[in-house]
Write a structure and sequence with these properties.
A 4-stranded antiparallel β-sheet has the order 1-2-3-4. With about 170 residues, the protein is of the alpha+beta class. A hairpin with a 7-residue loop joins strand 3 and strand 4. The protein contains 6 helices and 4 strands; from the N terminus they run αααββββααα. The termini are far apart. The longest helix has 26 residues.
């Protein structure tokens, strides 16, 4: 009998794979199956914790978005932050008097210290983040040191787990 070892990018995928192999090949090892079941239950509990960590980002999202709009209005003397989308301001520019940059895109703006560090990427008229924007926001805030490293590191290190947590947090 040939045995092949598969290494998947995250341990939860490995556990699900091993469990499916045991079921498919009718491997009846109660101890192994019990351990795998306990690990899966533990992992599911962690997903609930992950979801709460991501839900904690949503008020931060709103605060950073409000701050960006205020900075834009005051820095460029705009009537409305959305006016930054006008032809005169299009592209990538430094926000005067700050160490922040912005890049306009379509109906939105990406504000950052350096690419992928700090700030937020949002579309004007969209008050709530979608999955993609919340993931970018998480990465920007984590890379900027704005999130407790010990609490969020596992999500930064495991993209699948982060995606699941974001999906769960936004599905409520």
């Amino acid at each position: 009998m040939n045995v092949h070892v598969f290494a998947f990018p995250n341990s939860l995928t490995n556990i699900v794979f091993i469990t499916n192999v045991c079921v498919c090949f009718k491997i009846n090892c109660p101890v192994l199956l019990s351990v795998l079941d306990n690990i899966l239950l533990y992992s599911q509990g962690n997903l609930v914790k992950d979801e709460e960590l991501i839900k904690n980002l949503i008020p931060l999202w709103h605060g950073v978005m409000a701050w960006v709009k205020e900075v834009l209005v005051h820095s460029y003397k705009l009537d409305d932050a959305k006016d930054i989308l006008g032809q005169k301001y299009r592209g990538r520019n430094q926000i005067p008097g700050t160490n922040w940059f912005y890049r306009t895109h379509g109906v939105g703006i990406d504000v950052f210290k350096t690419p992928e560090v700090g700030g937020i990427d949002f579309d004007f008229g969209e008050d709530e983040p979608d999955e993609w924007r919340l993931k970018i926001f998480f990465e920007k805030q984590f890379n900027d040191g704005q999130l407790p490293y010990a609490d969020y590191q596992h999500l930064a290190d495991d993209e699948d787990r982060l995606d699941k947590a974001i999906k769960m947090a936004l599905s409520d």
